[in-house]
Amino acid sequence: MRKASISILIVIVSVLLCAGCDRRQQEYSIGVSQCLDDAWRQKMNEEMERELLLYPDMRITHRRIAHGNNEL
Fold this sequence. Notes:
Elements: H1 2-19, E1 28-34, H2 39-52, E2 58-65
Parallel strand pairs: 1-2
């Protein structure tokens, strides 16, 4: 009886451990909006791209420039 209980406990623990193993990596998307497209913002865009090299699970999906138009 005791061996059966230990075997059942081992199976339950194994199932719980395997259930917690999710091999899918989360991916994060970043959207960026800017009012103008000047040299300072172009430099900032380059720096953002460089920083993304350190985080393979992140990417910039939307980059919008309003060109000073509040309606956009």
